[in-house]
Amino acid sequence: MGQALTRPEHERDAGAARAHYAASVSPEPGASADRRPVPGRGLVLVVEDEPAIADVLRLNLRAAGYGVEVVGDGASALEAARDLRPSAIVLDIGLPVLDGIEVCRRLRGRGDWTPVLFVTAREDEVDRIVGLELGADDYVTKPFSPRELVARLGGVLRRTRGETTTAEVLRAGELTLDLTSHEVRIAGREIALTATEFDLLSHLLRRPGVVFTREQLLSDVWGYAATAGARTVDVHVAQVRAKLGDASPIRTVRSVGYAAERAPRDRPAGAPTDTGDGALEGASDPGPRS
Protein backbone atom coordinates (compact mmCIF):
# COMPACT_ATOMS: atom_id res chain seq x y z
CA MET A 1 0.00 0.00 0.00
CA GLY A 2 1.18 3.50 -0.75
CA GLN A 3 1.28 6.48 1.52
CA ALA A 4 -2.07 7.43 3.02
CA LEU A 5 -3.89 10.31 1.37
CA THR A 6 -4.67 13.23 3.65
CA ARG A 7 -7.99 15.06 3.54
CA PRO A 8 -6.46 18.33 2.19
CA GLU A 9 -4.75 16.35 -0.60
CA HIS A 10 -8.02 14.61 -1.43
CA GLU A 11 -9.92 17.88 -1.64
CA ARG A 12 -7.45 19.89 -3.74
CA ASP A 13 -5.91 17.23 -5.99
CA ALA A 14 -8.38 15.13 -7.96
CA GLY A 15 -5.55 13.22 -9.61
CA ALA A 16 -4.12 12.17 -6.26
CA ALA A 17 -7.58 11.07 -5.16
CA ARG A 18 -8.04 8.90 -8.26
CA ALA A 19 -4.61 7.32 -7.77
CA HIS A 20 -5.36 6.67 -4.10
CA TYR A 21 -8.60 4.82 -4.82
CA ALA A 22 -7.21 2.98 -7.84
CA ALA A 23 -4.46 1.54 -5.62
CA SER A 24 -7.06 -0.44 -3.65
CA VAL A 25 -9.20 -1.85 -6.44
CA SER A 26 -8.92 -5.52 -5.51
CA PRO A 27 -9.87 -6.31 -1.88
CA GLU A 28 -8.48 -9.85 -1.99
CA PRO A 29 -5.43 -11.33 -3.72
CA GLY A 30 -6.53 -12.91 -6.96
CA ALA A 31 -10.06 -11.51 -6.74
CA SER A 32 -11.69 -10.70 -10.04
CA ALA A 33 -13.53 -7.41 -10.40
CA ASP A 34 -15.67 -9.02 -13.12
CA ARG A 35 -16.85 -12.00 -11.06
CA ARG A 36 -20.55 -12.82 -11.04
CA PRO A 37 -22.57 -11.81 -7.97
CA VAL A 38 -22.44 -14.39 -5.17
CA PRO A 39 -25.91 -15.74 -4.31
CA GLY A 40 -27.13 -14.18 -1.08
CA ARG A 41 -24.83 -11.14 -1.20
CA GLY A 42 -27.48 -8.87 -2.72
CA LEU A 43 -27.57 -5.81 -4.98
CA VAL A 44 -25.84 -2.62 -3.81
CA LEU A 45 -26.91 0.76 -5.18
CA VAL A 46 -23.94 3.14 -5.31
CA VAL A 47 -24.82 6.85 -5.47
CA GLU A 48 -21.65 8.79 -6.29
CA ASP A 49 -21.11 11.74 -8.65
CA GLU A 50 -17.30 11.43 -8.85
CA PRO A 51 -16.63 8.90 -11.65
CA ALA A 52 -13.23 7.81 -10.29
CA ILE A 53 -14.67 6.95 -6.89
CA ALA A 54 -17.78 5.35 -8.42
CA ASP A 55 -15.58 3.10 -10.57
CA VAL A 56 -13.48 1.99 -7.62
CA LEU A 57 -16.55 1.27 -5.51
CA ARG A 58 -18.05 -0.73 -8.36
CA LEU A 59 -14.89 -2.78 -8.81
CA ASN A 60 -14.41 -3.48 -5.11
CA LEU A 61 -18.02 -4.40 -4.46
CA ARG A 62 -18.14 -6.69 -7.50
CA ALA A 63 -14.88 -8.29 -6.43
CA ALA A 64 -16.51 -8.96 -3.03
CA GLY A 65 -19.41 -10.73 -4.74
CA TYR A 66 -22.10 -8.04 -4.70
CA GLY A 67 -24.27 -7.03 -7.61
CA VAL A 68 -23.77 -3.30 -8.24
CA GLU A 69 -25.83 -0.52 -9.82
CA VAL A 70 -24.29 2.99 -10.00
CA VAL A 71 -26.11 6.33 -10.35
CA GLY A 72 -24.68 9.83 -10.10
CA ASP A 73 -27.37 12.05 -8.60
CA GLY A 74 -30.03 12.14 -5.91
CA ALA A 75 -33.09 12.03 -8.18
CA SER A 76 -31.75 8.96 -9.97
CA ALA A 77 -30.99 7.39 -6.59
CA LEU A 78 -34.60 7.74 -5.44
CA GLU A 79 -35.85 6.25 -8.69
CA ALA A 80 -33.36 3.37 -8.62
CA ALA A 81 -34.11 2.59 -4.97
CA ARG A 82 -37.81 2.35 -5.84
CA ASP A 83 -37.38 0.29 -9.01
CA LEU A 84 -34.45 -2.00 -8.13
CA ARG A 85 -35.14 -2.60 -4.41
CA PRO A 86 -31.42 -2.95 -3.53
CA SER A 87 -30.18 -4.77 -0.46
CA ALA A 88 -28.13 -1.69 0.55
CA ILE A 89 -27.29 1.82 -0.63
CA VAL A 90 -23.81 3.41 -0.56
CA LEU A 91 -24.74 7.10 -0.58
CA ASP A 92 -22.44 10.09 -1.08
CA ILE A 93 -23.58 13.03 1.05
CA GLY A 94 -22.05 15.69 -1.23
CA LEU A 95 -24.27 15.15 -4.28
CA PRO A 96 -25.23 18.14 -6.46
CA VAL A 97 -28.78 19.56 -6.25
CA LEU A 98 -30.31 16.81 -4.10
CA ASP A 99 -27.68 15.86 -1.52
CA GLY A 100 -27.34 12.54 0.25
CA ILE A 101 -28.97 13.69 3.47
CA GLU A 102 -32.09 14.78 1.57
CA VAL A 103 -32.10 11.50 -0.39
CA CYS A 104 -32.01 9.56 2.88
CA ARG A 105 -34.73 11.80 4.34
CA ARG A 106 -37.01 11.11 1.37
CA LEU A 107 -36.33 7.37 1.41
CA ARG A 108 -37.26 7.11 5.07
CA GLY A 109 -40.21 9.44 4.55
CA ARG A 110 -41.76 7.04 2.04
CA GLY A 111 -41.15 4.05 4.29
CA ASP A 112 -38.04 2.72 2.55
CA TRP A 113 -35.68 1.37 5.23
CA THR A 114 -33.06 -0.07 2.92
CA PRO A 115 -29.70 -0.01 4.80
CA VAL A 116 -27.71 3.14 3.96
CA LEU A 117 -23.96 3.61 4.26
CA PHE A 118 -23.00 7.29 3.92
CA VAL A 119 -19.81 8.40 2.19
CA THR A 120 -18.78 11.95 3.05
CA ALA A 121 -15.88 14.34 2.50
CA ARG A 122 -17.34 16.87 4.92
CA GLU A 123 -15.58 17.70 8.16
CA ASP A 124 -18.74 18.78 9.95
CA GLU A 125 -19.83 16.22 12.54
CA VAL A 126 -23.36 17.62 12.32
CA ASP A 127 -23.81 16.10 8.84
CA ARG A 128 -22.89 12.66 10.11
CA ILE A 129 -25.13 12.95 13.16
CA VAL A 130 -28.08 14.18 11.07
CA GLY A 131 -27.57 11.31 8.65
CA LEU A 132 -27.53 8.73 11.43
CA GLU A 133 -30.58 10.32 13.05
CA LEU A 134 -32.41 10.05 9.72
CA GLY A 135 -31.78 6.33 9.75
CA ALA A 136 -28.42 5.83 8.03
CA ASP A 137 -26.74 2.67 9.27
CA ASP A 138 -23.06 3.68 9.08
CA TYR A 139 -20.68 6.06 7.33
CA VAL A 140 -17.12 6.37 6.02
CA THR A 141 -15.22 9.60 5.51
CA LYS A 142 -13.21 10.48 2.40
CA PRO A 143 -10.45 9.66 1.82
CA PHE A 144 -11.41 6.10 2.70
CA SER A 145 -10.06 2.62 2.15
CA PRO A 146 -12.30 0.75 -0.31
CA ARG A 147 -11.60 -2.42 1.65
CA GLU A 148 -12.86 -0.76 4.82
CA LEU A 149 -16.01 0.38 3.04
CA VAL A 150 -16.72 -3.15 1.82
CA ALA A 151 -16.13 -4.51 5.33
CA ARG A 152 -18.42 -1.90 6.88
CA LEU A 153 -21.11 -2.65 4.33
CA GLY A 154 -20.88 -6.34 5.16
CA GLY A 155 -21.31 -5.52 8.83
CA VAL A 156 -24.37 -3.38 8.12
CA LEU A 157 -25.98 -6.17 6.11
CA ARG A 158 -25.23 -8.78 8.78
CA ARG A 159 -26.87 -6.61 11.40
CA THR A 160 -29.94 -5.75 9.35
CA ARG A 161 -30.44 -9.33 8.18
CA GLY A 162 -29.99 -10.65 11.68
CA GLU A 163 -27.00 -12.76 10.70
CA THR A 164 -24.64 -14.12 13.32
CA THR A 165 -21.17 -15.62 13.25
CA THR A 166 -22.22 -18.51 15.55
CA ALA A 167 -24.00 -21.71 14.60
CA GLU A 168 -27.67 -21.10 13.83
CA VAL A 169 -30.47 -23.44 12.84
CA LEU A 170 -33.75 -22.34 11.29
CA ARG A 171 -36.80 -24.56 11.77
CA ALA A 172 -40.24 -24.87 10.22
CA GLY A 173 -42.13 -27.93 11.42
CA GLU A 174 -39.94 -30.96 10.68
CA LEU A 175 -37.72 -28.92 8.36
CA THR A 176 -34.35 -27.72 9.69
CA LEU A 177 -31.70 -25.55 8.01
CA ASP A 178 -28.23 -25.43 9.53
CA LEU A 179 -26.76 -22.09 8.43
CA THR A 180 -23.23 -23.15 9.35
CA SER A 181 -23.03 -26.50 7.58
CA HIS A 182 -25.64 -25.65 4.91
CA GLU A 183 -27.43 -28.91 5.67
CA VAL A 184 -31.17 -29.23 5.10
CA ARG A 185 -33.13 -32.02 6.80
CA ILE A 186 -36.73 -33.16 7.06
CA ALA A 187 -37.32 -35.27 10.17
CA GLY A 188 -33.58 -36.03 10.17
CA ARG A 189 -33.44 -37.00 6.48
CA GLU A 190 -30.96 -34.88 4.52
CA ILE A 191 -32.28 -32.99 1.48
CA ALA A 192 -29.89 -31.82 -1.23
CA LEU A 193 -30.42 -28.18 -2.23
CA THR A 194 -28.26 -26.06 -4.49
CA ALA A 195 -26.53 -23.04 -2.94
CA THR A 196 -29.08 -20.70 -4.49
CA GLU A 197 -32.02 -22.81 -3.35
CA PHE A 198 -30.57 -22.86 0.17
CA ASP A 199 -30.06 -19.07 0.18
CA LEU A 200 -33.62 -18.50 -1.06
CA LEU A 201 -35.16 -20.77 1.55
CA SER A 202 -33.06 -19.44 4.42
CA HIS A 203 -33.79 -15.83 3.40
CA LEU A 204 -37.53 -16.48 3.63
CA LEU A 205 -37.26 -18.43 6.89
CA ARG A 206 -35.25 -15.70 8.60
CA ARG A 207 -38.38 -13.53 8.52
CA PRO A 208 -41.37 -15.89 8.72
CA GLY A 209 -44.65 -14.35 7.66
CA VAL A 210 -42.97 -11.47 5.81
CA VAL A 211 -44.05 -11.30 2.18
CA PHE A 212 -41.24 -10.63 -0.30
CA THR A 213 -41.90 -9.53 -3.85
CA ARG A 214 -40.08 -11.33 -6.63
CA GLU A 215 -38.07 -8.15 -7.23
CA GLN A 216 -36.98 -8.05 -3.58
CA LEU A 217 -35.89 -11.69 -3.72
CA LEU A 218 -33.91 -11.07 -6.92
CA SER A 219 -32.12 -8.22 -5.17
CA ASP A 220 -31.58 -9.89 -1.78
CA VAL A 221 -30.74 -13.45 -2.86
CA TRP A 222 -29.34 -13.17 -6.37
CA GLY A 223 -27.92 -9.64 -6.30
CA TYR A 224 -29.58 -8.86 -9.61
CA ALA A 225 -31.59 -5.80 -10.62
CA ALA A 226 -35.32 -6.44 -10.91
CA THR A 227 -35.03 -6.23 -14.70
CA ALA A 228 -33.11 -9.55 -14.69
CA GLY A 229 -36.43 -11.45 -14.84
CA ALA A 230 -38.75 -12.37 -12.00
CA ARG A 231 -39.36 -15.85 -13.46
CA THR A 232 -35.96 -16.81 -12.05
CA VAL A 233 -37.56 -16.66 -8.60
CA ASP A 234 -40.59 -18.72 -9.66
CA VAL A 235 -38.38 -21.46 -11.08
CA HIS A 236 -36.30 -21.75 -7.92
CA VAL A 237 -39.36 -21.70 -5.66
CA ALA A 238 -40.84 -24.54 -7.71
CA GLN A 239 -37.59 -26.49 -7.37
CA VAL A 240 -37.46 -26.01 -3.60
CA ARG A 241 -41.09 -27.03 -3.21
CA ALA A 242 -40.56 -30.13 -5.31
CA LYS A 243 -37.62 -31.21 -3.14
CA LEU A 244 -39.29 -30.48 0.19
CA GLY A 245 -42.76 -31.76 -0.64
CA ASP A 246 -45.29 -31.31 2.18
CA ALA A 247 -42.54 -29.91 4.42
CA SER A 248 -42.12 -26.82 2.23
CA PRO A 249 -42.86 -23.68 4.27
CA ILE A 250 -43.10 -21.43 1.18
CA ARG A 251 -46.49 -20.00 0.34
CA THR A 252 -47.48 -17.77 -2.55
CA VAL A 253 -49.27 -14.49 -1.91
CA ARG A 254 -51.46 -13.63 -4.85
CA SER A 255 -50.15 -10.78 -7.02
CA VAL A 256 -47.37 -10.04 -4.51
CA GLY A 257 -44.73 -12.72 -4.01
CA TYR A 258 -43.67 -15.35 -1.49
CA ALA A 259 -43.48 -15.83 2.27
CA ALA A 260 -42.42 -18.61 4.64
CA GLU A 261 -44.47 -20.14 7.43
CA ARG A 262 -42.88 -21.32 10.65
CA ALA A 263 -45.07 -24.45 10.95
CA PRO A 264 -46.38 -25.50 7.55
CA ARG A 265 -47.33 -28.92 8.94
CA ASP A 266 -50.01 -27.39 11.14
CA ARG A 267 -52.31 -28.08 8.18
CA PRO A 268 -53.53 -31.68 7.72
CA ALA A 269 -50.75 -33.90 6.43
CA GLY A 270 -50.79 -34.19 2.66
CA ALA A 271 -53.63 -31.72 2.24
CA PRO A 272 -53.13 -29.43 -0.74
CA THR A 273 -53.20 -25.72 0.07
CA ASP A 274 -54.20 -22.87 -2.21
CA THR A 275 -51.00 -20.94 -2.87
CA GLY A 276 -52.84 -17.88 -4.15
CA ASP A 277 -51.79 -18.10 -7.77
CA GLY A 278 -53.99 -20.95 -8.82
CA ALA A 279 -51.48 -23.69 -7.95
CA LEU A 280 -51.96 -26.12 -5.09
CA GLU A 281 -49.11 -26.42 -2.61
CA GLY A 282 -48.67 -30.00 -1.41
CA ALA A 283 -49.63 -31.33 -4.80
CA SER A 284 -47.13 -31.75 -7.60
CA ASP A 285 -45.76 -28.30 -8.40
CA PRO A 286 -46.38 -27.51 -12.08
CA GLY A 287 -43.58 -24.93 -12.09
CA PRO A 288 -43.89 -21.29 -13.10
CA ARG A 289 -46.94 -20.31 -15.07
CA SER A 290 -46.56 -18.67 -18.43
Automatic annotation (TrEMBL):
Residues 1-36, 257-290 are annotated as: Disordered. The keyword DNA-binding applies. PROSITE patterns: OMPR_PHOB, RESPONSE_REGULATORY. Residues 43-157 form the Response regulatory domain. Residues 167-262 bind DNA. SMART domains: REC, Trans_reg_C. The modification 4-aspartylphosphate is found at residue 92. Residues 167-262 form the OmpR/PhoB-type domain. Keywords: DNA-binding, Phosphoprotein, Transcription, Transcription regulation. This is Response regulator transcription factor. It comes from Terrabacter ginsenosidimutans. The lineage of its organism: Bacteria, Bacillati, Actinomycetota, Actinomycetes, Micrococcales.
